[in-house]
Amino acid sequence: MVFKFKEFSVEQDNTAMKIGTDAVLLGAWTIINKPINSILDIGAGTGVIALQMAQLYDAEIIDAIEIEPNAYEQCVANFENSPWSDRLFCYHTSLQEFTTEIDETYDLIVSNPPFYTANFLSDDKKRNQARQTASLSFDELLNSVKKLLSDNGFFSVIIPFSEESLFLEKAKIHSLFPIKITHVKGNNEAKIKRSLILFSKSKTKNISKNELILEIKRHQRTAEYQKLVDAFYL
Length: 234
Fold this sequence. Notes:
CATH topology: Rossmann fold
Helix content: 25-40%
Shape: globular
Number of strands: 12
CATH architecture: 3-Layer(aba) Sandwich
Strand content: 25-35%
Number of domains: 1
Largest sheet: 8 strands, mixed
Number of helices: 8
Strand order of the largest sheet: 5-4-3-6-7-9-8-10
Distance between the termini: 16 Å
């Protein structure tokens, strides 16, 4: 099954985790109005977020990490078949191992991390590994981001709204501070489902906060959401 975007296509037939709203939303939301020369996507899956970053930024280095073998192979293929194959590279490794071996830092780190606990597990072991916090805890993620992020860099992440307070507390311990938070709702009547958070290593007194509603009704995007993803969705 090929998922076609305006400027690239993504094969996803060999991966447990298919392209979802969270990934595309994070990629579209992560707009930094400063020079970005290097980008890291943690937990790349199909590579869709890294591909979005390649479309948005002229960064010379766009690296990705993916531990699941089939997803890694699919990600590599998607990178090779994209218009930006010369700038994209995927590592088949864990974040923990990558962090100990890499000396470079990145201007922008993006992650749609695995966050589902045992309550959400399915019978698909590969899907579970992709979604389960046991494979990558918030502490491990934030500790690595702290080490891999440049002093003036940015970390962009999407997490369940229910985990926001805990994630912010843990981020503070790792000297990562929120500068922008967007709460995401499926529709006007729904509860807040996701939190998009942009971090830096510098504290700010005025955190930018807003709300994003995705749909007016089923399969009808709000004008705000459509504008956000317009550069990507056909």
